Request: fold
Amino acid sequence: MSILTAQNVEKHFTEGRERVAVLKGIDFAVDRGEIVSLEGPSGSGKTTFLSILGCILTPTKGDVTIDGVTASAKRLNEIRKRSLGFVFQQFNLFPSLTAVENVEYALNVKGVRGAEAHNEANRVIEAVGLADRKRYLPRDLSGGQKQRVAIARALAGSAPILLADEPTANLDSTVGTQVLEMFRALAKKENRALVIVTHDPKVRSIADRVVKIHDGVIE
Amino acid sequence: MVDLATKSLLHDKLRFLITVSGVAFAVTLVFVQVGLFLGLMDNASLTIEHLDADLWVTSHNTANVDFAHTFPETYVKRVREIPGVARADNLIVWFMNVSLPNGAVEGTEVYALEDFERWSFPWNVVEGNRQDLRRGNYFILDDSAKKRWGSFAIGDYREILGRRLKIIGRAVDAKSFTTTPLTFMDYRLAQSLNPSELRGNTTYILVKVAPGASLETVRAELRRRLPYNDVFTGAEWAHRSRSYWVDSTGLGLNMYLTVFLGCLVGIVVVAQTLYTSTMEHIKEFGTVKAIGGGNADIYSILAKQATIAAIAGFALGALMSYALRPVIQKIDLKLVIPTPLSIAVFIGSIVLCLAAAMISFRKVASIDPALVFRA
Reply:
């Protein structure tokens, strides 16, 4: 059974007096443990679609079901807390927190506190190979290391779905490949679904499936 | 639990310093202004509080203890006849001119009693003996006179209203709101210095009620027997004397305005720095929302930062105010910072900082978590 489904998802934005259809009826599903690369040219609607899958935006029409729960406006926060982990293109780490604190804080927001949060944060930081950098602030980490922290933050806790927006866009080719391999290995090991929005052809090499979006529809 | 609020606030040390300085400035301003005001107010009723009188008989509509008016001294006999009165004495408070050895003429505020010892007044005589004031051309001078009159010593003479009087004692802490130096002399001597106004007259009657007697009953009888005078309890008279300066001189308005401006400056600085900080960290707040946090999580971060700024600013401001006390004392002013004022300013600092954070709350409420996907 799919852990994430989107049925007939449409999204319209209003620009001035004009109504622009960004997504035009998308059906999409991801199974537990599956890695999907979501590709498309700029402006194709892939980030908007990722935002809807991530319960950050609501669709104008259609339904999104995450881990058996249909996303409604009132439950978006709760679903994000419980079922989703994010990796962003710009890493979006908290600059005042160390690597391990960035992960622990995300767990705190999800309701995990105390020793449990501390131990889990240390576990995932070690899993992404940053045991020796866990007390470093983001400014003292390289781009690849920052992205590893961001991946650790997404993995922390038990979210069954991981969503990544251009995770290699700010990394050089070698580091990007290393990060992707690591991301794949950890997602597979923990049986998490992973959806990666990307322009980067390297992502295909780690994906189980490639989905292409063009002009708001899946090709 | 990871303390994002504190770590984020302290991460940018310069901004934190600016925020704390803003609060500290406001706190110092309020402490100094209100403290000076309270110090002056203390002086306005200092002599009333140190004269152990239960009731004060004054001429009708006297505004405060310094600006006394005369009435016949024989009224004291009517007072002494009232049952329940243990003691009643005339007191003259009067401004007189003093000719100094350098030729300058200065003012003094004379307190004249028949028996200073009986009223333990002045209360802090550090040289000389107040019993020696009886029936002689002598006076005791408060130490604060040095500033206006120049230095003096026991045994020196000064000319008050044309008569050479010998300084036989030195008091300290006896001050008036007017800052005019206080002198203490025999009641008859004061009358003889200004016979045209004071002969046969007094300016106040001090009344001590007998133990067990009803103050209100004695006061009612005093009012009946002296219908053209006013009768106040010590507390009422002290309050009336202080209120005069607050209400009639604009001093109170000035203090309230300064306190208001201090609060305004503090709130603007804190609001400005918190808002700028919020705008700079908007993506971080968006991330908090994206990973499952709600507005409440972000409000608690901002509220905690505002509270920390308030506490640190209060501590710094209080420290600066206390450090100013000896400096202010050197210019013969008092900075009075009672505990209730400290508590009020502390609570006020927190409330105002939280109010300042409200602007940021409004901004945060409208954060779109989708901004985390924007480069």
